[in-house]
Amino acid sequence: MDALAAQFFDLSIMAAALPMVIEGLWMTLALCAVVVPMGLAGGLLVALAALSPKRWVRWPTIALIDLFRALPPLVLLIFVYSGLPFAGVRLDPFVAVAFAFLLNNAAYYGEIYRAGIESVPPGQMEAARSTGLSQAQAMAWVVLPQAVRNVLPDLVSNTVEVVKLTSLASVVSLSEMLHQADLARSVTYNASPIVLAAGIYLAILWPLVRLVGRFERRMAS
Predict the structure, then answer these.
(1) How many domains does the chain have?
(2) Residue range(s) defining the domain that contains residue 203
(3) Helix orientation angle between 144-165 and 11-50, rounded to the nearest 10 degrees
(4) Tell me: the pLDDT tens digits for 62-74?
(5) pLDDT by residue (tens digit) across 12-24?
(6) For residue 29, which of 162, 210, 136 has the smallest C-alpha distance?
(7) Distance (Å, whole) CA 50 – CA 112
(8) Model pTM?
(9) Are 167 and 178 in contact (CB under 8 A)?
(10) How many whole angstroms separate alpha carbon 77 and alpha carbon 53?
(11) For position 2, what pLDDT does the model report?
C-alpha cells in the first residue's frame, strides 16, 4: 500500500508538478473556449443543412455527418496534423486540434440539434408563419428556442465529452494539461502528476455532470 501511495499519490511531487500542470490547464481552457463555441455554431449550421428540403444540400451533409461521427477523433487529429502537410498545408498544433475537433464535434452537435428541431411539433412553425414571420425568423425565434430546451441535457453532456476530448491534443505535443502532466511524469518517473491532472479534470467536469443529471430529472418530471 505504501508503494502504491508513493507511486500515485506523492504530495511532494504533485506540489512540484503543479505549476506545469496549471500552465497546461490554461491551454486546455483556451482550447475549450475555441472548440466548444465553434462546435455549437457549426453543429447548428450542419443541422439546418441536414434538414434542408434541397437534396443537393441535405444528402452531402448527412454523408459528412456520418463520416466524421464514424472516424475516431484521434485518427482525424493525426490526419489533420500529420497528413495535410503532404498536401502542402501545415497547421499550427493549436489550429490543427481546433479544426479536427470542429469537424468531429459539429457532426455530433448537429445530430443533437436536428433531433431537437424534429421534436418541435410542425404546427409551431405553421403558427409562427401565420403571424407574418419568414421561414428564417420562425426558425430562429420560435422553433430553435424550443428545440434547444428539449435537447439541453444532451448539449451539455456532449460539451463534457468535448472537454475530455481535449486531452487528445497531447499526441501532437500541444502543451495542454495532460501533456504537461506527462512531461512531469517523465522527469519524476512517478505517476502522481497524472493523478493530479485527473483530479483537476474531475473538479472541472463534476459540476457539469451533476448539471446534466439535474436537467434530465427536471425534464422527466
Answers:
(1) 1
(2) 2-220
(3) 140
(4) 999 999 999 899 9
(5) 888 888 999 999 8
(6) 162
(7) 12
(8) 0.86
(9) yes
(10) 32
(11) 67
**Sequential DSSP letters for 61-129:** HHHHHHHHHHS-HHHHHHIIIIIGGGGT----HHHHHHHHHHHHHHHHHHHHHHHHHHHS-HHHHHHHH
- C-alpha 177/C-alpha 27 separation (Å) is 7
Is 46 within 8 Å of 56 (Cβ atoms)? Answer: no
Under DSSP, the state recorded for 141 is I
The total of other beta-carbon atoms located within 10 Å of residue 34's CB is 16
Say how many C-beta atoms besides its own lie within 10 A of residue 26's C-beta: 13
Which secondary structure element, helix H or strand E, spans residue 210, and what is its range?
helix 192-220
CATH code, domain with 36:
1.10.3720.10
Give the alpha-carbon dihedral of 146, 148, 152, 155, to 10 degrees: 160
Cell numbers at 201, concatenated: 479534470
Whole-angstrom distance, CA of residue 27 vs CA of residue 55: 41
65, three cell numbers: 455527418
Q: Give the helix/strand (H/E) hosting 191.
A: none
Rg (CA), the chain: 21
DSSP 53: S
Distance, CA of 61 to CA of 49 (rounded, Å): 6
